[in-house]
Structure formats: structure tokens, C-alpha cells
Amino acid sequence: MKMVSAKSGCLLGKPLTPTMEDYLEAIFDLGESKKFVRVKDIAKRVDVKMPTVTSMLKTLSGKGLVKYEKYEYVELTADGAMVGKEISRRHQLLFKFLTDILRIESKTADEEACKMEHTLSAGTLDSITDFMEFIQACPRAGESWLHQFEEYRLHGRRPENCAERTLIFSSEFKKKVDCLKD
Q1: 142 with 173: CB under 8 angstroms?
Q2: Which of 16, 17, 67, 92 could cross-link to 75 by cystine, CB 3.0-4.6 Å?
Q3: Which tens digits make up the pLDDT trace of 79-132?
Q4: What pTM did the predictor assign?
């Protein structure tokens, strides 16, 4: 059996192309919302003609990532589902970061997330995930905010640390205000 790494998108050391990953993501996402995935559904989703989809499905089938027979429904294999799920997860995480944190318009964020999902390392994605968790759990004030983020990452994601930092920030802020009054 061929082995696929969802994190690296590799099949026995041979990287999958971004286009292959896009197809696997599309099939995975369609499978989440539809009982059966058809060639025309994939064509509409990736915005190509049906013969183009058929050609890619043959390639992906040859790699053991999809089950496909002409005029039949498309199904991901276990390996294909693993890659499709990971690419979908990456896309959703990046989309959320772009829209919720950076306030990028939805359509642009979706296009950019699609480009980024294929190129960012697992470590970078982990850092983005950590950052998103941090800003939801910890105060967003003070000069040392980004330093606090690094502490949050290094010493565990404990909300009680954020509460302590809030008290420190409040105390420092009060001292600065008092100095201005004098």
C-alpha cells in the first residue's frame, strides 16, 4: 500500500502538486455535504470542464487516492481522505486568520488561503493556530503583548497566565498614568 503523509502532502516521498491537493480538498469537502460526489460537482467546485476532472481523477486513482470508475461516483481512499481533510483544515484555518484577525475581505481571503495552504510549513501553521488561540484568551494591551504571546507559546496555553498578565499590565498602566498626572 502506498503511504501518504497528510502534513507533507507526499506520496512515497513524491510531493503532490497543489492542483492534486485542490482536487482532494474539493472531493473531501463535497463528500462532507453530499451523499455522493460526482464529476460534475468537482468540475463546478474547481471551475474546470468535466474532461479535465476525469483526467485528474485517473491520475489520483493511479496514486491510490481516489476510487473512480467512468460514470460512477467518486470516493476518496483512506489516504486520499487524510490528505483532503488536512488541506481543508489548512484552508479553513488560514481563511479564519485572514478574515477574523487581518480583516481581509472574504472572497480575497478565500483565494489567498487557497494559495497559502499548499506552501506554509506545519510549524508556521501551528504558530498561526497558537496566535489565534492566544488573542482569544489573553489581553491585547501593553507594550509587551507580542512578548506575552511568545511566553504563552513556550510555557503552555494557560488562561490563568493571561489573568496574571492583565494585572501586571493594569499596574504598569496605572503607574504611567500617575506619572503623567505629576
Answers
A1: yes
A2: 67
A3: 999 999 999 999 999 999 899 888 899 999 999 999 999 888 889 988 888 888
A4: 0.71
Q: What is the DSSP string of 63-124?
A: TTSEE--TTS-BEE-HHHHHHHHHHHHHHHHHHHIIIIIS---HHHHHHHHHHHTTTS-HHH
Verify that 69 and 101 share a domain, yes or no: yes
Note the pLDDT tens digit of each residue in 9-53: 444 456 899 999 999 999 999 999 988 999 999 999 999 999 999
Is 87 part of any domain?
yes
For residue 165, which of 125, 138, 136 has the smallest C-alpha distance? 138
44 and 109 co-located in one domain? yes
- 159 plus 113 within the same structural domain: no
Q: Quick one: which of 25, 1, 15 has its CA closest to 81?
A: 25
Domain enclosing residue 105, as ranges: 1-119
Task: Number of helices (H) and strands (E) in the chain: give both, helices first.
Answer: 8, 5
